[in-house]
Design brief:
139 residues, alpha/beta, five-stranded mixed beta sheet
């Protein structure tokens, strides 16, 4: 089973957990950074990721780095934060647990209106991300 998953991934470029989605400005996630940005009228997309997370790397390639997602982030004014767990990070681990997740990947989208954050699926598609960004940008 592992071989079946590894072969299609052999051609993927190696990335680090801190690599931003191409052409989208990112900042480092901290609980304090999210608290400071919430309520400022723009969505916040947090990418909990790690270099060793295969699903994270696939989602980066097939969804997050796609032009439609980049355009949706720009259009909605979304702040993009990366929570890197390549090396153990207690804050990241705590956040994963607070959102009821057992591990990576975790994608959390805070709406512009300050409402409750939405946990996106662990396997992303362009359409899923774009629709979630558009919804999160609504007042």
């Amino acid at each position: 089973m592992v071989l079946a998953l590894a072969l299609p991934l052999a051609g993927l470029p190696r990335t680090t957990g801190t690599q931003a989605t191409a052409d989208v400005a990112s900042s480092t996630w901290t609980p304090q950074a999210v608290a400071a940005e919430r309520g400022r009228g723009h969505p916040i997309f947090v990418n909990f990721t790690a270099a060793w997370c295969v699903t994270c790397q696939v989602n980066e390639r097939v969804a997050l780095s796609q032009e439609a997602v980049k355009q949706a982030m720009a259009h909605t004014g979304t702040r993009y934060m990366i929570a890197d767990s390549t090396q153990f990070n207690a804050d990241v681990d705590d956040a994963i647990n607070q959102f009821g997740q057992g591990g990576l990947p975790l994608y959390v989208l805070y709406p512009a209106n300050g409402g409750e954050p939405q946990v996106l699926p662990q396997v992303l598609t362009v359409n899923t991300v774009v629709a979630a960004l558009e919804q999160a940008a609504r007042p």
